[in-house]
Specification:
Blueprint: H1 2-19, E1 22-26, E2 31-39, E3 43-48, E4 57-60, E5 64-68, E6 74-76, H2 96-99, H3 118-127, H4 131-135, H5 139-177, H6 182-229, E7 235-247, E8 251-263
Antiparallel strand pairs: 1-2, 1-5, 2-3, 3-4, 5-6, 7-8
Helix pairs in contact: 3-6, 5-6
Length: 264
């Protein structure tokens, strides 16, 4: 009978002890039966219940989701917000409109490692309007210029067609009635003037287009030159060295060695 009572008491004590554990729930879902000893600003100190006389463990609060204490109190910890995506900007991501006011194209000095060629950009835009801008990385600007040039060409074709149609109508009227047609003459004059104005506007637009392509290349090159100046570089190398030094009675004597070259 005594053995049964002792076993019952031990069982109840074990059950009470098991129920008295603090439960630490980590972010990854792991549960730890523990005896929490101290909660600081950023850390939690505890002992494991399966080794109460063992070492003191320390957990960062960012690893803990909640702690359920033996008295039923539950302490929640804020889950760390996901780290924002890092964007690594490409060196050539800069847009012309963002730096246009920072540089004057007339101050540009060409360097051998410039990423864009002002001459190539200008020539490309001369043959195909907008192509130079595309070569400079300004695709939206280049395609817009190309579309504008196509619009000018379509308008000129329409005005020229009206002019020739009116001329044919006027000639037919003159042949039939022996006199000129006032309406046809008026339409011819208007369409001719409109075609001349449109052609002049297209010429001015294309001249601006060539200059714009050249300026974009220059301004972007100046921007990248400034980036290069802000990057400090040092190159060291050991190279064989041969020199002639004067020697008494012998003249010049060759001396070989190593020289340290520094390049900034």
């Amino acid at each position: 009978m005594k053995k049964i009572i002792l076993s019952t008491v031990l069982f109840l004590m074990a059950a009470f002890t098991a129920g008295a554990d603090d439960i630490i729930t980590k972010i990854d879902g792991e549960k730890i039966r523990a005896m929490v000893m101290e909660v600081r600003d950023n850390t939690v100190k505890y002992k494991r219940m399966d080794n109460p006389n063992g070492p003191v463990y320390v957990l960062d609060q960012s690893e803990i989701r909640s702690i359920e204490y033996e008295n039923g109190l539950v302490e929640e910890f804020d889950e760390p917000s996901p780290e924002p995506e890092k964007y690594y900007a490409n060196r050539y991501d800069v847009r012309y409109r963002d730096i246009a006011g920072m540089y004057r194209p007339q101050d540009y000095v060409e360097k051998f490692d410039d990423p864009y060629s002002a001459a190539v950009s200008g020539i490309a835009s001369f043959f195909i309007p907008g192509l130079g801008q595309c070569l400079d990385g300004e695709w939206g600007r280049g395609l817009g210029i190309f579309a504008g040039n196509v619009g000018f060409s379509v308008l000129e074709a329409a005005e020229t067609s009206i002019f020739f149609y009116s001329a044919v109508q006027g000639a037919s009227y003159y042949r039939d009635y022996g006199t000129s047609n006032g309406v046809s003459n008026a339409v011819m004059t208007a369409s001719l003037c409109a075609a001349i104005l449109t052609a002049s506007a297209q010429l001015a637009f294309n001249i601006w287009n060539i200059c714009d392509a050249v300026n974009i290349a220059k301004v972007k090159n100046m921007y990248y030159q400034d980036l290069g100046r802000n990057t400090v570089s040092l190159d060291m190398s050991l190279e064989p060295h041969l020199a002639f030094t004067p020697s008494y009675g012998i003249g010049l004597q060759p001396v070989a060695g190593l020289s340290l070259n520094l390049r900034f």
